[in-house]
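Re: the request from the purification team.
They wanted to know what the chain is likely to look like in 3D before they choose a buffer screen. I agreed to run a prediction and write the result into the notebook, where they can find it.
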Amino acid sequence: MKEKIILLFHKMHGLGNDYVVINEFEEELIPEDKKSEISRTLCLRRFSIGADGVIFVSKSNIADIKFRIFNSDGSEAEMCGNGIRCFGKYVYENDVMKEKKISVETLGGIKKLRLTVERNSVKSIRVDMGTASFKTVDVPMISENDEFIDGELKVDDRVIKLTAVNVGNPHAVIFCENLDKLSLEELGPLLENHETFPERTNVHFVDVKSPEEVEMITWERGAGFTMACGTGATSVVVSGYRIGVLEKNVQVHLPGGVLQITVYESGDNLGAFMEGDAVSVFEGITELEF
C-alpha cells in the first residue's frame, strides 16, 4: 500500500537556476530510497512544481549543516553553486540557522558561506568554493595526461579544445567566440556523456570579453541547459586564470544574471570565492505518494 504525505516546500532560484527546497533538518520527510524518484517527480515542469533540482536541508556531524542536491533526472550531485546560495538564504530567513557565517557539508567537501543581511533579509551570499583540481584522476577523466589543460578532445567528427577541472564536481570548459551561433543542444549532450568522463560532466562554453569579464552558457550534467551555474562560473574563471586569459577578479555573465568570482592561491592550488544573490519565489504544499 502506498504512503501519502503532505509536504511543505519552498521554491527558490539563483540567477534563474531554480530549486525546490525541502527542510529535513529536524526529521527525514522523504525516505532515502525514494529521494531520487521524488526529485524527478517534483522537477517535472508543467506536471509538478518544476525545477532544475531539489535541495534537502539536513543535519551534519562534520559541519554546521548539510546540503544535498538532486538533479532533475534524479541523480545526486556533489555540489551546486547557485543551489548552495539558495540554501544559505533559506536556512537564515527560515530560522533553521541564524548565523551569518555557516560551514556547510556537501558531497564536494565543506563549503563556507558568508551572508550579507539587511533587515533579516539575505541580500547576497559569498561562498568559499574551495580549491580546484586539474588532475584528470580527480575530475574524473580517462586520459593518459596527468592534467587536461586546453587539450584537444575528439568529439564525433570534430576536435574540441577544452580544460577539465573539478571544483567539487566535474567540469569541461571551452573558450570560444560567438556563443549565439553555438549549437548547445547538440554539443552539450555529446560532451556531458563523452566516454572520457566516466561520471559525466558539466559543460561550459565561454566568450572572453576582457581579462576581467566573460560571457558563458552551460549544459548542466543531469539537467541540460540551465540559466546559470555557480560551480561552472567558478570552473571557468580558475581555468581561465590557469591558462593565462583571465585575471583573478572576474565578472561572469550568464543567461540568468551576473556572478563575481575571485580566485585565490592556496599553496600550489587555486581556489575561488563566488558571490551572488538568491531569490525566494514562493512556498507551498504538495501531496506526495510513494
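For the purification team: The CA atoms of residues 66 and 221 lie 22 Å apart.
Please add any questions underneath this entry.
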